[in-house]
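Hi R.,

As promised on Friday, here is the backbone we talked about, encoded as structure tokens. Could you run it through your design pipeline when you get a chance and send me back a sequence?
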């Protein structure tokens, strides 16, 4: 699957590198786990549909009642239509320079914050709805005028969120500036019980699949496929034993495309069928 460089693919004039950029994203079909290289921090104001994103050490899902602020970097995006035959969100990108300007002007806390999640969930309240409507009205403005308007609108939004979410939001903003690479093991082990493929986990580690496999074998002394399968099957067994669910309810969650393959792998490991854990 090709990697999408965002927001570059949305900018018509490739010579431009705006500090602030708004894009109306619409879709009429589901997209599952597309690889996205996010070059700027970004607000994703979801208005119609559902969205799930995976980052290096975590994942999050939201619906149209929530929006996300996402840290720049490599993400896997799943975007799904809801009851309507369209997916729609407004994307608002901002540079680190604009963020630093805002923090210098409006916050006192200079402390470097580590260990924060790469996303922040925002409730789509009445203010956010009104704000998005106001963004829509400036789309016809000339380039220079729009740049000034967006600067004002960015500051307005950030001030509102700072007032709404307080120290938690301020700490998150400071964490966006921190240049931090996630440890390899932390990323791998956070994805053990997801249904991500090896190439998708490698992408989140900023590695090619071949580099990822070499690095994995060096760290874990076994192949990633075998290691992940054992971990996931063990978790699947625990899930079946503890939660009173059927194998047909969970096989997708543990990376299997069909129940038959899951049952065969399960029996090979444990010596009995997954359905026998229910008896």
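Update: got your reply. Pasting your designed sequence below so it's all in one thread:
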């Amino acid at each position: 699957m090709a990697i999408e460089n965002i927001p570059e693919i949305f900018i018509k004039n490739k010579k431009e590198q705006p500090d602030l950029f708004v894009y109306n994203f619409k879709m009429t079909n589901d997209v599952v786990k597309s690889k996205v290289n996010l070059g700027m921090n970004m607000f994703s104001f979801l208005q119609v549909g559902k969205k799930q994103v995976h980052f290096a050490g975590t994942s999050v899902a939201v619906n149209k009642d929530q929006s996300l602020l996402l840290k720049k970097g490599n993400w896997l995006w799943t975007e799904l239509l809801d009851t309507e035959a369209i997916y729609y969100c407004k994307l608002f990108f901002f540079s680190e320079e604009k963020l630093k300007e805002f923090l210098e002007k409006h916050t006192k806390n200079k402390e470097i914050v580590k260990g924060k999640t790469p996303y922040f969930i925002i409730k789509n309240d009445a203010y956010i709805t009104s704000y998005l409507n106001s963004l829509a009205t400036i789309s016809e403005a000339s380039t220079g005028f729009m740049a000034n308007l967006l600067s004002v609108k960015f500051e307005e939004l950030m001030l509102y969120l700072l007032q709404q979410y307080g120290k938690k939001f301020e700490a998150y903003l400071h964490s966006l500036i921190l240049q931090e690479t996630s440890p390899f093991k932390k990323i791998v082990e956070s994805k053990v019980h997801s249904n991500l493929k090896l190439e998708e986990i490698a992408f989140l580690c900023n590695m090619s699949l071949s580099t990822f496999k070499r690095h994995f074998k060096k760290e874990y002394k076994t192949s990633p496929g075998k290691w992940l399968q054992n971990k996931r099957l063990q978790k699947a067994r625990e899930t079946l034993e503890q939660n009173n669910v059927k194998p047909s309810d969970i096989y997708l969650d543990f990376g299997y495309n069909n129940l038959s393959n899951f049952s065969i792998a399960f029996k090979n490991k444990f010596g009995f069928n997954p359905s026998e854990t229910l008896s």
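One thing I noticed while checking it: The longest helix spans residues 143-177.

Thanks again,
M.
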